[in-house]
Amino acid sequence: MARNSIALWVAAILVYAFLYIPLIIVVVYSFNDSRLNAEWVGFTLYWYKALFNNTEMLTAARNSLIIAVSASLLATVLGTMAGLAIHRYKLKVLPILAFTPLAIPEILLGVALLLFFLQVLNLTLGMLSIILAHTVFCIGFVAIIVRARLQGMDESIFEAARDLGATPWQTFHQITLPLIMPAVVAGALMSFTLSIDDFVITFFVKGVGEPILATQIYTMIKVAVTPEVNAISSLLMLLTLIMIIIATRFDSSMLQGGSKQ
Amino acid sequence: MALLEICNLTKSFGDFAAIDKVSFSVEAGEFFTLLGPSGCGKTTLLRLIAGFDAPDTGQIILDGMDITQLPPEKRPIHTVFQSYALFPHMTVADNISFPLKMSGELPAEIKARVKQALNDVQLTKFGHRFPQELSGGQKQRVAFARGLINRPQLLLLDEPLGALDEKLRVDMQRELIKLQKDSGITFVFITHSQNEALALSHRIAVMNHGTIKQIDTPSQIYNFPDNYFVANFIGKINSLNAQVLAITDQQLELEVTGLGVVKVLSKEAVNVGAQGVIAIRPEQVTIKYYSTPEEAVDGFLGKVKDFLYVGDVTTYLVQLPNGACIEALTPNATPGRTQFFNIGDPVVVNWEYASGKFLKNEA
Lengths: 261, 363
Prior knowledge:
heterodimer, A: mainly alpha, 11 helices, B: alpha+beta, Rossmann fold, 8 helices, elongated
């Protein structure tokens, strides 16, 4: 028993170390007073200052925020509707339709969306195409979270509302929506982080115009890995972390894969 | 005219007929109970009346108006759910006021009515609480108050006492009778518990396999069951296989296999030769010692096979000469009485002529 649990602890620590040590190194070296990532010289905030004087980087950050906010709003509305539909109409094909974009390799989705935008919609690649692409893969996440919340609920609550005189619309905005709101907010925050971090799909559908944070970082690395890259990565990590923490606060069942109490 | 009329209602799920051509009516002010084992169709019937499901055929008429096609929110019918179905994000007061808000009452009117309703169910101090902060019995009372506040023409109750513990259930039964009496609102109550049905109802409809087996007052249902299902489902009953020998005025002569001829009152029409059972309630069977066969002229000889002492009564299981067993329930009304008969004692069992009923086998 005791030996087993020690082995388990060691294994767990190793797994978490493997996951988090690279991230910690990135953060630590963003404060390194040296052009190179090779050795620790001393503490500085120089790279963060440089970042905030880099106009291209600031534009990329602004663009990424606009995309993330728009895509997460769109995905939240559509994903909530999808989650409600999947829960209500027990059609087996509905969950498959909503969740497939999550399972498809990103590179495939990227290529497919690129071809769709260019050849079918005849769209000029840019902010709009990125927003639409991000909405596509975020819908599934929102739908999963919303459905998981609905599954844990007593169905007769919604019937009771109708029974006591509420129309279907009144039932939705007075009963259903308030009850699934934590999942809706969690889904929106998840979508936001997925959008702001996405590289592969963005890379395919961004076109040549506007700089985007994720692809901008990639461009910087191609030239030289300076601690400025570490700094912007650390900031992005911080933003993502905050969003995840808020999202799980809103709907703790999200982390349990839908197996709500 | 009846308040609620159910005409030829049918509802199938695939090949399974959950409700099969059911018709009955409920009078205004009545406490009407649908009683039956699980799967008998009583919940389906309630869902059709409430409007959550649509029937395949048939009509539901409320106060002379055909409501079969109306959505639930348009029906002047409210439901108390087994799970209470209180809105978890609303306080008790908001839950109770929900129907009033939906029907567009003025805020001042709502406030006064909610205050009165909270008072009626002894929850005056609980208005600002949330449902998850209440006990089972309190949630139950909130559900009643919410269902009654808008004074629906009909209140449907889906096993509302099922989740409560025994002691609380008996208290709630009294409260329910009082609520129904004070409000004057017609109740249609669903339960699988025969005791609950007998204790609460003005009339009971006993259901099985999607059909109604008998509708009558509790005492008629108990004392004069129409068929073997009702007899067996409501309370305990002894049944001895029998065949009709002769039919005379109001009376049947039956041949009980291995025992001889027994006479019973005839309630419904049967033919000579019909197979069935004689049914007798255990508390209507008397049991006494005998020493000589002459003492046993008016009864059947038997031997005590087993007994069960449960405090207020003792149930004796008596084996008859034909091998069948019959139960006799005797009250232990005398102080200090423990047991009168021992296993193996020769006894004679009997019942009053009017207690036995012939129930023919169902085709």
